[in-house]
Amino acid sequence: MTDRRDFFKKAGLLGLSAIATKLVSNEKLHVLDELAGQSLPKAAFTLPALPYAYNALEPFIDEQTMMIHHTKHHQAYVNKLNETPSTNLDYSVDDATKCRNIDQYTSSVIRNNLGGHVNHSLFWTLLKPNPLSKPNAPVGKLAEAINKNFNSFEEFKKQFSEKAVKIFGSGWCWLIEKDGKLVITTTPNQDNPLMKVAEQRGKIVMALDIWEHAYYLKYQNKRADYIANWWNIANWNKAEELFLSK
Ligand code: MN3
Predict the structure, then answer these.
(1) Alpha helices (H) in 26-106, listed in sequence order
(2) Do 117 and 234 sit in the same domain of this protein?
(3) Same domain for 25 and 146?
(4) Cα of 28 from ligand 1 centre, angstroms
(5) Å from CA of 123 to ligand 1 middle
(6) Helix 75-83 / helix 108-125 crossing angle, nearest 10 deg
(7) Domain check: are 233 and 148 in the same one?
(8) 69 C-alpha to center of ligand 1: Å?
(9) CA of residue 190 to ligand 1 center, whole Å
(10) Using alpha carbons only, what angle is made at residue 71 by residues 69 and 73, rounded to the nearest 5 degrees?
């Protein structure tokens, strides 16, 4: 607090107090800290709560996997981001925009952990409980677009599953909208299709985590089984919302 008070004193002398007050009211304390020569914020990123219980995706994804995935893996990306403030990252923009600014010059720590945080935050919302194993398929405008681009949902499923199963090592499989078309694409590690480093860039509509940590406890080396079961819990209402968003 003393440092901050000193800063206000100095800022006041420089006629910056009005700006500083505005920044504080906007909760952009990190900008203030940067101006004061302090480190960037310790808690700029937070772990979002899951929109369902850890066991809610049973029997397709087990409780222990969900708990470790959320509280250990996702939390670790959040922690690392907060421990590694970067002067090259614009903290004032939303996380999707931060991702869009990721290029080959961005430090791998920021790229990997920001990607990890953004991808998982999205992934949780793109899953939904289906304890009775009811039939699950795309809805509304997105269903129409999938039929138009892939001929049928069954054909889309086949192509998406094939791409996902073939990812070498850790990565993600995506459905994106690019130039008005739906495209299936993959990224390595924690990259995503918002980033300039991605092979195919576009608006994210659906996401599937293909890291072993997402399925190994229940499925071991049987990645294809994890993918086949995932179709039961893909949240197509959320996907349509993303598809229709600007
Ligand atoms: Mn993961």
Answers:
(1) 29-35, 63-68, 75-83, 95-100
(2) yes
(3) no
(4) 29
(5) 9
(6) 140
(7) yes
(8) 6
(9) 9
(10) 50
Residue 48 in domain: no
Provide the CA 181 distance to its chain's centre, in angstroms: 22
pLDDT digits (tens), the chain, 246 positions: 344 444 444 444 343 433 333 333 334 444 444 444 455 554 589 999 999 999 999 999 999 999 999 999 999 999 999 999 888 888 999 999 999 999 999 999 999 999 999 999 999 999 999 999 999 999 999 999 999 999 999 999 999 999 999 999 999 999 999 999 999 999 999 999 999 999 999 999 999 999 999 999 999 999 999 999 999 999 999 999 999 998
Is residue 209 domain-shared with residue 123, that is, in the same domain?
yes
Q: From ligand 1's centre to the CA of 245, what distance in Å?
A: 24
State in Å: Cα 111 to ligand 1 middle.
15
Structural domain boundaries, residue 103:
63-244
Residues 76 and 192 in one domain: yes
Check whether residue 3 and residue 103 sit in a common domain: no
Give the distance (Å) from ligand 1 centre to CA of residue 152.
Answer: 29
CA of 225 to the centre of ligand 1 (A): 17
pTM for the full predicted model: 0.83
Cα 19 to ligand 1 centre (Å): 40
Is residue 164 classed exposed, middle or buried when 0-12, 13-18 and 19+ CB atoms within 10 A define those classes? buried
Q: How far is the CA of 98 from the centre of ligand 1 (A)?
A: 19
In whole angstroms, what is the distance from residue 137 CA to residue 157 CA? Answer: 10
Q: How much distance in Å is there from the Cα of 107 to the middle of ligand 1? A: 20
CATH number, residue 210: 3.55.40.20
